[in-house]
């Protein structure tokens, strides 16, 4: 493979955020050997960063060191290189010394978001969940628009069974990315786990509406992708709501819809439609058994 | 018209020693100042965490308000976020220097005494100087040596309206508009070389001088560092009212979602 096509491939990896580390490493090392990065122009530095990350991924720390050395010579005070050095340290050194390094960087520049996030991830990795949550909340209080941060916080909370807090974190992610049905689905599922069935039902319905909005005749087509999951959610919620209507209002004060029976019928229909066709025959039978069992 | 067009004959020396030098000097000066500006530009100043937090707090409530009329958030969650922000703005939690103490009237910070703001302004002035001084020198040079020169004849006819544009510095009512005077040639270059700079230096160059005519040093400084002296306390107080308005406008996407879905499937 020629150098220019390898470079082109690597640039497209960078643009698409592809992590193919093994591939990147193979191509990157040939480029690194054949000539120096400075000859590649401005793109060369981004390439070095990419190669460093890929070689850390596959454990070739010597190559990573070579890349970081070249980068830190060119950009002595760059926060981006500081992050790279931190990641390199995480690969081989003890978490304590990595944390010390991150603390040092943060002391100089308290607003270095990338370093801050890495620090939080190290804290989470070594099991200091409480500290990680604390730091992450502070981080998100400053850098509110970080959707991934909110999702991570929600994840940590629900791994500790703190579903209400998790829902709160998810609600911020929902405001920041209202167009993403996956966030809404996660919100619905977390609400279901937290036992807030009316809220979960509504959110599942929102997801189905969001996903099937652009389908011209939704009743004729089988649900696909996440809408299958959302319809299952609707079915589960509506069944439990019909079976034992809640006596007290739910935690979020969401009323149970009056048309709950109709929704249950529709959900049953939609869930069964998703098992249509040859491959779905077996699943369809199991599902109908499960549905008629109640 | 046609007789007057041939009535003038330009010395080729004018072309070689006036027309080309003016054009060349202007191009070179443009390129030079691009690099001078690059040298003068100081790297954006790092801001401490508290300052960033203060700046971005407004964005939080703006995001919330933007989605209010069709909000993805259930009412319970919306009001909790909205109330939380509103309380924080009231108490001044997001202010850089902590909540204001006592009830001393808050004075807007003076930009002259604030060194951070001063830096931004100075940077703007410095680039302005680099932009304006060479242009003044070139214009003086042309005015001094080549005043009243006719440099070229445009290869296409023009209406009389262009006379003041193309024959600046020559007071002849009868000359054909196609002749261009030295000062006008300078102005044509001044406004027209931008495309050439973009080819040579890339689209983000600072060689273009016609841009400075509209920009003031203060506007430039304001764009460079959004943390210009602003009384955040006042902004936060105003934002509280906005939050309350939005709370009135709020409606949840999922409010009637069951009927919407059912009617879409033709069930009701």
From TrEMBL, chain A:
TPR repeats lie at residues 147-180. It is a peripheral membrane protein. GO terms for cellular component: EMC complex. Coiled coil: none annotated. It comes from the Eukaryota. InterPro entries: EMC2-like (IPR039856), TPR-like_helical_dom_sf (IPR011990), TPR_EMC2 (IPR055217), TPR_rpt (IPR019734). Keywords: Endoplasmic reticulum, Membrane, Repeat, TPR repeat. It is found in: Endoplasmic reticulum membrane. Residues 98-191 form the EMC2 TPR-like domain. It holds the Pfam family TPR_EMC2. Component of the ER membrane protein complex (EMC). Part of the endoplasmic reticulum membrane protein complex (EMC) that enables the energy-independent insertion into endoplasmic reticulum membranes of newly synthesized membrane proteins. Belongs to the EMC2 family. This is ER membrane protein complex subunit 2. It comes from Crucibulum laeve.
TrEMBL record, chain B:
Its main location: membrane. Keywords: Membrane, Transmembrane, Transmembrane helix. Residues 96-116 are annotated as: Disordered. InterPro entries: EMC3, EMC3/TMCO1. The chain crosses the membrane at residues 17-40, 130-152, 183-201. GO terms for cellular component: EMC complex. GO terms for biological process: protein folding in endoplasmic reticulum. It is a multi-pass membrane protein. It is found in: Membrane. Belongs to the EMC3 family. The EMC seems to be required for efficient folding of proteins in the endoplasmic reticulum (ER). This is ER membrane protein complex subunit 3. It comes from Crucibulum laeve. The lineage of its organism: Eukaryota, Fungi, Dikarya, Basidiomycota, Agaricomycotina.
């Amino acid at each position: 493979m020629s150098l220019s096509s390898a470079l082109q491939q690597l640039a497209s990896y960078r643009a698409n955020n592809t992590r193919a580390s093994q591939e990147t490493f193979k191509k990157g090392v040939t480029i690194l050997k054949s000539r120096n990065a400075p000859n590649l122009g401005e793109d060369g530095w981004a390439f070095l960063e990419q190669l460093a990350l890929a070689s850390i991924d596959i454990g070739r720390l010597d190559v990573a060191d070579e890349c970081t050395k070249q980068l830190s010579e060119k950009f002595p005070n760059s926060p981006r290189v500081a992050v790279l050095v931190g990641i390199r340290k995480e690969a081989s050194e003890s978490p304590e010394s990595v944390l010390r390094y991150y603390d040092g960087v943060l002391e100089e520049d308290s607003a270095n978001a990338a370093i801050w996030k890495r620090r939080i991830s190290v804290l989470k990795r070594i099991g200091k969940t409480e500290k990680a949550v604390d730091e992450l909340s502070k981080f998100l209080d400053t850098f509110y628009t970080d959707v991934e941060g909110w999702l991570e916080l929600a994840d940590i909370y629900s791994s500790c069974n703190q579903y209400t807090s998790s829902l709160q974190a998810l609600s911020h992610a929902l405001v920041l990315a209202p167009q993403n049905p996956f966030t809404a689905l996660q919100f619905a599922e977390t609400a279901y786990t937290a036992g807030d069935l009316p809220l979960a039902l509504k959110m599942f319905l929102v997801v189905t509406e969001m996903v099937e909005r652009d389908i011209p005749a939704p009743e004729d087509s089988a649900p696909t992708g996440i809408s299958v999951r959302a319809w299952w959610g609707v079915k589960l919620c509506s069944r439990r709501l019909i079976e034992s209507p809640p006596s007290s209002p739910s935690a979020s004060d969401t009323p149970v819809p009056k048309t709950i029976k109709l929704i249950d019928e529709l959900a049953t229909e939609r869930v069964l439609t998703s098992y249509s066709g040859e491959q779905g025959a077996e699943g369809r039978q199991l599902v109908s058994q499960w549905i008629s069992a109640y | 018209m046609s007789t007057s067009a041939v009535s003038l004959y330009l010395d080729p020396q004018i072309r070689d020693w006036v027309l080309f030098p003016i054009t060349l000097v202007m191009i070179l000066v443009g390129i030079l100042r691009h690099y001078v500006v690059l040298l003068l530009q100081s790297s954006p100043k790092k801001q401490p965490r508290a300052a960033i937090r203060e700046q971005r707090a407004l964005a939080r409530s703006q995001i919330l308000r933007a989605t209010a009329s069709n909000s993805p958030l259930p009412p319970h969650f919306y009001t909790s976020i909205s109330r939380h922000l509103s309380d924080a703005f009231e108490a001044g939690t997001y202010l850089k220097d902590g909540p204001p103490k006592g009830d001393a009237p808050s004075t807007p910070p003076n930009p002259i005494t604030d060194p951070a703001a001063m830096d931004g302004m100075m940077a703007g002035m410095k680039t302005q100087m680099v932009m304006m001084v060479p242009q003044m020198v070139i214009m003086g040079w042309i005015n001094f040596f080549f005043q009243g020169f006719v440099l070229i004849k445009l290869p296409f006819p023009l209406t009389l309206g262009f006379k003041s544009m193309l024959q600046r510095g020559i007071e002849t009512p009868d000359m054909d508009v196609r002749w261009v005077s030295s000062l006008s040639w300078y102005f044509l270059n001044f406004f027209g070389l931008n495309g050439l700079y973009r080819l040579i230096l890339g689209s983000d160059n600072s060689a273009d001088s016609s841009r400075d005519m509209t920009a003031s040093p203060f506007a430039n400084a304001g764009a460079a560092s959004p943390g210009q002296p602003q009384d955040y306390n006042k902004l936060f107080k105003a934002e509280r009212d906005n939050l309350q308005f939005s709370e009135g406008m709020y409606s949840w996407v999922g409010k009637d979602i069951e009927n919407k879905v059912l009617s879409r499937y033709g069930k009701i």
